[in-house]
Amino acid sequence: MQESLAPRVAYRDPDYPLEHVPLEARRGLLSVTAVLVGFTFFSGTMFAGAQLGAAYPFGQLLVVLLVGNLLLGLYVATLAAISARTGLTTVLLSRYTLGSYGAKWADLLLGGTQVGWFGVTVAFMAIPFVRALNLPEPWTPVMMIVWGGMHAMTAYFGYRGMERLSFIGVPLMVILGFWSISIALRDGGGFAAIAGRTPTEAMTLAAALTVIVGSFASGGTQAPNWGRFAQTPGIAFWAAIAAFLVANGLMFVIGAIGGSVYQKPDLADVLAAQGLLVWGVLFLALNLWTTNDNAAYAFGVAGAEAFNVNNKRPFILIGAIIGTIFALTGAYNLLIPWMIAMGTFIPPLGGVIIADYLFVWKRRLPRMEHVQFIPLRWSAIIAYVLGGLTAWATGRGILPGIPPVNGVLVAAVAHIVLQGVLARQGGDHVVSPQATYV
Predict the structure, then answer these.
(1) For helices 403-426 and 205-215, what crossing angle results, to 10°?
(2) If we measure between CA atoms, which residue out of 237, 188, 215, 227 comes closest to residue 64?
(3) CB 243 within 8 A of CB 36
(4) Are strands 430-431 and 371-372 parallel, antiparallel or unpaired?
(5) Cβ-contact 80, 239 below 8 angstroms
(6) Which residues is 3 bridged to in the sheet?
(7) How far apart are CA 85 and CA 438, in angstroms?
(8) Most buried of 7, 241, 289, 348, CB within 10 angstroms?
(9) Which of these, 320, 322, 162, 318, lies nearest to 226 by C-alpha position?
(10) pTM more than 0.85
(11) Within 13 Å of residue 35, how many CA atoms lie on the same side as its CB?
(12) Is-contact 132 317, C-beta < 8 A?
């Protein structure tokens, strides 16, 4: 059975959730970098940095952060370059890789985790905001609802709205980060004193690297949602490196230094101890906004693909409501286990997509309108399951190595091997003889 997937409505979303982004809508390096860096500038990453800082001497921590963020950066940058070449979101790339029905799993996996991430970020905004204004505790859920609505607003207006907000929020967060580091170094007795502190917690290297990769494994796998707007694959690649290696690494370092000096994993508590809470909350309002509008945008385009509706906006609104409910229930307290789970089960999907594009399609995809997608591509689905199981077993100590890295590699290799076996037994998508390629 073959299936042609044409959008069910005539409305054309200006962000092309079910189409290839045309060349006239593409952006330059500054624009794409600003949007992606705004995505990775997230106070929850600082929280994770504080946890890592408590488990490693500072010198070892820097090495762990470099390795983890390099792995994350290269993985995301490859996906971003593919998206710029094809003009497609992650979930649309999943149609080619998993099939028309298999892509629904990508919608659920990627869109669902971003709904949860939206809730975490809403909580990280509302709690310090209430503290900064010295409001009574009952105001916390009110602020969660208010910020949930505001965070969804720029995503509702699409890439252009997120771009403008990032141009404001990213520079402010850089200022806040280095400001906080300078005060922490002063209060902690200087860099040498901080570097000489004895770890108070324990964390295996595999767990630490999984936390780092998991910090943006889900979001990074969806970098094509914004990388597809880049004018060239090179622009998308280097924008992703700047965001997921440099900026994400900076967030971990800020959290590690603050947590080490003040023994507080919560950024709001660190800023309060530094006398920066009011200024910090003003900066963080923009910082967290630039992260959460990306999350909202991600589950918006996932919903558009899942229901084949060429309009991301209703799914942004629905996802924002669900994510805000998560925030109200206190689900944000599960941040570290959540990162570990995402670092385990999401990267194998990206590994399958990368292998499919590079080694099966040979870097040439037929345009979507020229393809009849089969429901399921079993080579990719089985490869993803094998990659996920490998990452899970690695995280449990059954296999040696780093869970997300093992998962990506096994999924990619398994897909290439299985494709050669299963394709001869039933074929893949039906491509029009008159197809044009991207």
Answers:
(1) 70
(2) 215
(3) yes
(4) antiparallel
(5) yes
(6) 373
(7) 7
(8) 348
(9) 162
(10) yes
(11) 33
(12) no
Among 148, 78, 125, smallest CA distance to 352 is for 78
- Measure the CA dihedral 171/24/352/294, to 10°: 30
Residue with tokens 């093992």: 406
pLDDT tens, position by position, 62-117: 999 999 999 999 999 999 999 999 999 999 999 999 999 999 999 998 888 888 88
Given the structure tokens 């394709």, which residue do they identify?
A: 423
Burial of 25-48, coded b for 16+ CB within 10 Å and e otherwise, reads bbbebebbbbbbbbbbbbbbbbbb
Q: What are phi and psi of 8, to 5 degrees?
A: -85, -10
CB atoms inside a 10 Å sphere around CB 178: 12
pLDDT digits (tens, 9 = 90+) for 148-189: 999 999 899 899 989 998 998 888 888 878 888 888 888 888
Cα–Cα distance for residue pair 373/295, rounded to 1 Å: 28
Tokens read off for 226: 């914004």
DSSP at 310: S
Q: How far apart are CA 103 and CA 375, in angstroms?
A: 9
Count Cβ atoms within 10 A of the Cβ of residue 63 and give its class: 0-12 exposed, 13-18 middle, 19 or more buried: exposed
**C-alpha distances in Å from residue 26, one per residue of 15, 23, 205:** 11, 5, 40
Cα–Cα distance for residue pair 34/56, rounded to 1 Å:
31
